[in-house]
Each structure stands twice: as structure tokens, then as C-alpha cells.
Amino acid sequence: MKKRFLLCWLLLSAAALSAQEINVVEKRAPETVPFAQPFALQFVLSHTPGYEVTLDENSLSKDFEITQISSSDNSPGTKSYDLTALPFVLGKSTFTVTFNLVQNGKTLASAPEELFINIPRAQTFDDNNLREIRPPLIPSGWLTWLLAALLLAALIAVCLYWYKRLQRRARKIGQIDDTRPGNVIALSKIDALLDSGLWENQQYKLFYITLSDILREYLWRQFRVDASADTSAELLRRVKNMPQMAPLMYQLRDFLSSGDLVKFAKAVPSEQIRDKDVKILREIITETTPKEPAPDAPKENV
What we know:
Elements lengths: L1 H17 L3 E7 L10 E9 L4 E5 L7 E12 L2 E10 L3 E13 L2 E14 L22 H33 L7 H13 L9 H20 L8 H8 L9 H15 L7 H18 L14
Helix pairs in contact: 3-4, 3-7, 4-6, 6-7
């Protein structure tokens, strides 16, 4: 009798284990995505009801920055995951992700998935085969004098512009530079930006441009790193080998990605996202500021 009971228990356990399954039944993603432009992916999974489905973030491809992850239960046995990603590589790349079937914190089954996405270079027109086919335009009469006057006016305007710019630069050189530490200047500029009214007037793009400029100015003042003309990807490559920035690379990447979505993709950030980005910038400034040595204790006179 005991042998029969044991045999039945083993058969039931094997059936239960074989029923723990998870599969990707549908996936949606573009085949070609412009460089550094956000795009959407969707995965629909079929799984054994009664178990939890999770996304393994460590399995995500390092060639893409994930800016948003959301999920929804379609039925007791199906679940959808929607992701927003930013590509930071060129050429044919592989997007990887793994979904796990979990119970009581233990992974029972996994469903790895790969997508091949092409990220083309920016289109240029440096083609030696292109030729000008229009005949040269030769003005005559009063039109010649008009064009000459316009060219002269443009030349005068350019000269005045550079003259005034040189004067402003000379005045700046003559002025006393802000001698405060770089971290103090950056933190005060963050406070001034929050009090400027740009956010309240819904000028989100200008707000994030100023926030990004504060970071770049801080890097120059504190480390003499000139990132004023760098893209987000170039800035990350420039500072990744700095020992002060190494522990903060994840936060820095999150900060730059959030700003790019507002500045280039015209995303409308929430106050929670703004507060998160401001907090990240303050943390970067605080953590990379050299700590002042503690003052020596005064010696007692013997």
C-alpha cells in the first residue's frame, strides 16, 4: 500500500513540475530604429496560471537604455510587457530579455528572447556622383546692385556681431570670476533654476537644457572636463574612466536619458521625474566633491 501511495505522489509531483511553463507567444518591435531615438517593444507571454511572471533586468542588452517598463495581466494565463528603449550603438544589434516564472521567490522556468534591430547611421549626402545641373545665375542691371548691397549689409552685420562678441568676452575676462567651489556654484544654480518659474510656465525643454548645462559646467569647474559640446553618449564615454564618476555611471545615464527624452523626443515629464532628476544631479555633485580633511586637534601645552 505504501509503495502505491509513493508511486502516485511521484506521478502527481512530476505532472505539477511539467505544468510550470512560460512562453513568449507574441513580440512586437521595429526592425530599424534611428540612433538615440526612443522606440517601443511589446512581449505577450503565456504562462501557467497561479504563478508570478517577472522580467530579469540583468538579462537586458547593454546596447540599449531602458527608460520605461510596464506590465499588465491580460488573463490568468497571459501577461503583456511594454518597454521603451534608447539605442546607443550603430549597426545590427541584438536586444535580449528573459522572463521568469516565479513562486515564493524561486524561479521555476524561464523564457529568454532575442530581437535583431538595425540602427543605421545618420544619412549624409557626401556623394561624389552628385553634380550641379542648374546653369549659373548671372544678375544684370539693378538686380546686380541690389545683391551687392545685400551682401555688403550682411558683411557689416557679421562684423558688428563679432565685434560685440569680442567686447563681451573682454568684459568677462576683466570681471572677477566666481571663486566659490564648483559644487557650491552648481547647487546654487539648481536652486535658482527651481525658483525661475520655467517649470511652472511649462517650459520643460528649456528647464532640462539648463539642468544639463549645470552638470556640464560643474564637470569643467571641478575636473576640467570640457563636455559643453558633447552628446549624452559622448559625455558618458568621456567620464566612464574617471574614478570619481565610476560609482555613479548608472545614475548619470538615467539623468542624461531623461533629459534627452524631453529635449529631443518632446516628452512631457511629471513632477516626480523632475524631482528624481534634480535629486540625481545633486547626488552626483555631492558624491564627487572632494572631502575636506578633518582639522587636526589642538595640541595641549605642556
